[in-house]
């Protein structure tokens, strides 16, 4: 049970870190707002 929670927390942490990386790309003008939103939804499983 604890191991499963740790796995979920690690996945969430990884998703948050990835979103932060894509936000930097957005802020730097490397990707568009639409690309950022698409990737964010994908990473969050929405």
TrEMBL record:
<dbReference type="InterPro" id="IPR018649">
    <property type="entry name" value="SHOCT"/>
</dbReference>
<dbReference type="Pfam" id="PF09851">
    <property type="entry name" value="SHOCT"/>
</dbReference>
<feature type="domain" description="SHOCT">
    <location>
        <begin position="18"/>
        <end position="44"/>
    </location>
</feature>
<protein>
    <submittedName>
        <fullName>SHOCT domain-containing protein</fullName>
    </submittedName>
</protein>
